[in-house]
């Protein structure tokens, strides 16, 4: 496959590292983003992994390994499948993950998935791939982002940027087309996460993010689980037996619920044949109306998040010209109906709902490569497709209150602040002439009260020699284009960078 811009090859890929499926794209020789098929010939790779015989088996190969195994081996293999690791990145379960008798971490599993994506892309392109733009949910904090970057580096990839998923989708939407100026809302409902992002398009098709609001654990998995619960209840009512509790039966329930969810986006009524091994079979009729009742609370949660994003942007639904869908779960008719009721207009799809984020990441990858290598060659950034993002979550530091008897949070960066811009300084005075500045505890969130769940880590600053007690020090914070936090201390016109020692993931 030939890729590039004119005579110059593009070596940086765009990766959508999804909760349920992942995808890779790159700019082709005509300057258009194209999704790359994996080794199995599919444009999407299941985000699953399994430790087997001393190595990770990833994607469809892991699922095939389970399905082709003898029945007595299928149960332990099914129990060892790691799914939805994206929801664990940056905040792993106690004790880590256990797969195939091997104890590992979400970072290592994510690295295995990324390594397969890069390996398959290299095979498809005919040259090694070592650089990537990787997308993450807009609501991901520093912990999740730093853990994602660590996974990429473990997979042998240099991350040029971590890009917010709704921004990538908006870039895919606007590239190469005449986009009318105005406000758009990107509704990104994927397999495991949700983001609503409000942005403003200009006459050139470029966009500036005004506000974003996300829900960490709401996506297609939640809808599937609702249907799985309904299928189990109906099975037990129909057969007068408890549904089997083994891993094989549980996996079958989820697989059939996922199929039913997809079918109910196209049909009003379906029949699910549920036949767990060693138990009676049952034919269960499901209707779209029943499914919509099951997910009604989730629809309310989604609408509330959209309204919060609009409120942060100081806009009403009437001011939004376009509602742009991305993420496979936005196919659900009830989701689209909710948006049409709220905005008074039908939402638009952004290209392929499953691939738009990866395609946008490919355009950004080309831009990053131009910035990295192309200045001396006179290469320009892609026209009509620049995204100016903003701080998507508040971050602060722990300080003593005015009475000096309690630590509180001082917000340094607010949601909506510009990226790559140092915050207004917070002034302190050195208590002694020590070469060590007191560690600066960093927390996320708007609340002024400290919460251990919001703790990101502490910043260590080594001071230059010769400073006196009482020297004035100015603390500043910045969030870079990848959403990672940086802190610096300014003293006597000297800038001393701090090293954020993040919570280990």
UniProtKB/TrEMBL annotation:
Keyword Ligase included in the entry's annotation: no
Record's keyword terms, sorted: ATP-binding, Chaperone, Nucleotide-binding, Stress response
Pfam families: HSP70 (PF00012)
Residues spanning the signal sequence: none
PROSITE patterns from the UniProt entry: HSP70_1 (PS00297), HSP70_2 (PS00329), HSP70_3 (PS01036)
InterPro entries: ATPase_NBD, Heat_shock_70_CS, Hsp_70_fam
One GO MF term attached to the UniProt entry: ATP-dependent protein folding chaperone
CDD domains xrefs: ASKHA_NBD_HSP70_DnaK_HscA_HscC
PANTHER family per record: HEAT SHOCK PROTEIN 70KDA
Family statement: Belongs to the heat shock protein 70 family.
Name of the protein described by the UniProt record: Chaperone protein DnaK
Organism listed in the record: Dictyobacter arantiisoli
Gene from which the chain derives: dnaK_2
């Amino acid at each position: 496959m030939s890729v590039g811009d004119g005579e110059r090859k593009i070596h940086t890929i765009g990766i959508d590292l999804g909760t349920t499926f992942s995808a890779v794209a790159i700019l082709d020789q005509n300057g258009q983003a194209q999704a790359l098929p994996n080794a199995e010939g599919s444009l999407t790779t299941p985000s699953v992994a399994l430790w087997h015989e001393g190595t990770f088996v990833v994607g469809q190969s892991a699922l095939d390994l389970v399905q082709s195994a003898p029945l007595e081996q299928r149960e332990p293999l099914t129990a060892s499948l790691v799914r939805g690791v994206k929801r664990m990145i940056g905040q792993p379960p106690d004790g880590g993950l256990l797969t195939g008798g091997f104890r590992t971490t979400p970072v290592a599993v994510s690295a295995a998935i990324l390594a397969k994506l890069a390996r398959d892309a290299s095979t498809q392109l005919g040259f090694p791939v070592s650089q990537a733009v990787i997308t993450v949910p807009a609501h991901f904090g520093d912990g999740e982002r730093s853990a994602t970057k660590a996974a990429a580096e473990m997979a042998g990839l240099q991350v040029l940027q971590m890009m917010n998923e709704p921004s990538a989708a908006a870039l895919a939407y606007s590239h190469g087309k005449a986009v009318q100026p105005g406000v758009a809302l990107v509704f990104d409902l994927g397999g495991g996460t949700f983001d609503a992002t409000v942005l403003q398009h200009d006459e050139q098709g470029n966009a500036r993010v005004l506000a974003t609001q996300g829900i960490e654990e709401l996506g297609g998995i939640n809808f599937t689980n609702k249907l799985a619960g309904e299928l189990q209840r109906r099975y037990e009512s129909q057969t007068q037996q408890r549904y089997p509790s083994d891993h094989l039966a549980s996996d079958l329930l989820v697989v059939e619920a996922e199929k039913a969810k997809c079918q109910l986006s196209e049909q009003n009524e379906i029949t699910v044949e549920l036949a767990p091994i060693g138990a009676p079979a049952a034919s269960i009729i499901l209707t779209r109306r029943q499914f919509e009742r099951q997910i009604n609370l989730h629809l309310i949660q989604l609408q509330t998040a959209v309204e919060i994003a609009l409120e942060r942007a100081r806009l009403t639904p009437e001011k939004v010209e376009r509602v742009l869908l991305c993420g496979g779960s936005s196919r659900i008719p009830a989701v689209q109906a909710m948006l049409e009721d709220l905005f008074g207009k039908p939402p638009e799809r952004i290209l392929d709902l499953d691939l738009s984020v990866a395609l946008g990441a490919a355009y950004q990858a080309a831009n990053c490569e131009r910035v990295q290598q192309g200045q001396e060659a006179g290469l320009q950034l892609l026209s009509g497709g620049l995204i100016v993002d903003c701080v998507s979550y508040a971050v602060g530091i722990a300080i003593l209150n005015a009475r000096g008897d309690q630590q509180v949070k001082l917000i340094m960066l607010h949601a909506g602040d510009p990226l790559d811009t140092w915050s207004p300084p917070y002034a302190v005075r050195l208590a002694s002439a020590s070469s060590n500045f007191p560690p600066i505890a960093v927390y996320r969130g708007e609340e002024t009260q400290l919460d251990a769940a919001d703790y990101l880590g502490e910043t260590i600053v080594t001071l230059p020699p010769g400073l006196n007690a009482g020297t004035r020090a100015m603390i500043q914070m910045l969030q870079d284009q990848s959403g990672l936090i940086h802190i610096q201390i300014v003293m006597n016109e000297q800038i001393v960078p701090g090293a954020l020692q993040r919570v280990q993931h």
